[in-house]
Design brief:
The chain has 455 residues and is of the alpha+beta class. The protein contains twelve helices and 15 strands. The longest helix has 46 residues.
């Protein structure tokens, strides 16, 4: 096939000649990882590099500037299985400086490239391939949504080619669960540009997990696919760019959302909102006057509410930490002591729990809930004491029995000294006296009863 100019400026900087047609019509999108074989030569035919000679295909991220410009341009036009000759002017290769010693300055290069396969861009937080993006329609501009941004999307969800979800949705990133948007879609949207359409292949850990989704007929541990279009978005203002009053106003909004999510039983979302308050206010020491008077109760409330939500989730460790933060801020707050006491009970620390419930009653003696919890702690401690006594009593009895058995076994092992001596004496009487004994008749000998006898 004839060479065609595929350079963006149509300046003949990248010429392409198809050697073998590829399969289908799909070409690799920017951001995907492409696997190719290639052979690079100078115009005079001198070979300077070849993955084929190494027997190892070359992989790179398309459109990320990790290879020469000509490759990003040329490979993006190729189908799976296609083989083409790319003629690359110096401007699109190694420039006027070249790449000594193999590529001279200002050299035009030829690459025989074959596209073997490609996979989508890895958008997963741990880069483990659990969220894969294949761009269908590139977006506009350079900006992307951030955490908290208000997004308007259209999505189509598929499992095994079956459409299970198709709709428009508007939500704040980080709160997608409120409108049944899975984590994998939310994570991906932070990389989308306006009007971008992409196919997302999302594994179970960022989709419906081990349990699946009965509503959509998704089994456990299932990989799902979403085609998502980001129609529009409004970036959320970052806390570092807010003044003190804006931070207060934003935190009040987070508090209201957190309370609504808590009442609706959406505990994970409630936790997110209360944590956002702390992120916005906790470490900012610039509040003064009336603003400081507004800030401090908000931080206290966020910690108290976090402790309550964590208790609902049976997350005793985090509940204890949140309540402790509240106590550090206000050591006369009965809710903080009560909730930490509940956390200690869940952690089986009845003695520490009793101390907190007692502190709560010191602040408010008529707190019946604290009275009941303190009584429960005392009962628990008594039961623990009785149990320990029984355990230690049984343990000591067991040790005493073991010692007795050991003594009896040792006695059985001891030799019969008297019998042994008697036998030795008998043998001694029956043997012939030695010459020494004949010459010294007054030596002491043992008699048959094992007693010394004066001869």
């Amino acid at each position: 096939m004839p060479e065609i100019d595929i350079s963006p400026k149509q300046d003949k900087g990248v010429l392409k000649e198809i050697l073998n047609e590829g399969q289908g019509s799909e070409t690799p999108p920017n951001g995907c990882k492409v696997k190719v074989h290639y052979t690079g030569t100078l115009l005079d035919g001198t070979q300077f590099d070849s993955s084929r000679d190494r027997g190892q295909p070359f992989e790179f991220d398309l459109g990320k500037g990790s290879v020469i410009k000509a490759w990003d341009i040329g490979v993006a036009t190729m189908k799976k299985g296609e083989r083409a000759m790319l003629t690359c002017a110096a401007e699109y290769a190694y420039g006027e400086s070249g790449s000594p010693p193999t590529i001279p300055p200002g050299a035009t290069l030829k690459f025989d490239v074959e596209v073997i396969s490609w996979i989508g861009e890895d958008l997963s937080p741990g880069k483990d391939g659990s969220i894969e993006r294949v761009i269908i329609t590139p977006g506009e501009g350079y900006t992307t949504p951030n955490e908290g941004a208000l997004v308007d999307i259209h999505l189509i969800g598929k499992h095994n080619d079956r459409v299970f979800d198709e709709r428009d949705a508007t939500f704040n990133i980080g709160e997608g669960a409120d409108v049944d948007i899975i984590e994998g879609v939310e994570k991906s949207l932070e990389s989308f540009k306006k009007n971008e359409t992409s196919r997302l292949i999302i594994k179970a850990k960022h989709a419906y997990g081990k349990t699946g989704c009965e509503k959509h007929g998704i089994p456990g541990d299932a990989t799902v696919e979403f085609t998502v279009t980001l129609k529009s978005f409004e970036k959320a203002k970052e806390s570092w760019s807010m003044d003190s009053q804006e931070k207060i106003d934003q935190s009040l909004l987070y508090k209201e959302k957190g309370t609504n999510y808590f009442k609706a039983g959406k505990l994970e979302l409630a936790v997110k909102m209360y944590k956002k308050i702390l992120s916005c206010l906790e470490f900012d020491k610039t509040f003064e006057g009336e603003l400081a008077a507004e800030r401090n109760p908000l931080v206290l409330s966020a910690n108290l509410n976090l402790a309550l939500v964590y208790l609902k989730q049976n997350n005793a460790f985090e509940a204890k930490n949140a309540a402790t933060e509240a106590i550090n801020q206000d050591n006369t707050n009965e809710k903080a002591y009560f909730r930490r006491g509940q956390a200690y009970l869940l952690l089986r620390e009845a003695e520490l729990a009793a101390e907190d419930f007692a502190a709560c009653l010191k602040i408010e003696p008529n707190n019946k809930a604290a009275q009941a919890q303190l009584a429960l702690c005392k009962k628990t401690l008594q039961e623990q004491l009785q149990k320990e006594k029984k355990i230690y009593g049984n343990m000591f009895a067991k040790f005493a029995k073991m010692d007795t058995q050991k003594e009896e076994e040792e006695k059985k092992k001891e030799p019969d000294v008297m019998s042994s001596l008697g036998e030795w004496g008998k043998e001694d009487r029956e043997r012939e006296p030695t010459e020494f004994e004949k010459e010294n008749p007054n030596i002491l000998l043992l008699n048959g009863s094992g007693q010394f006898k004066d001869m």
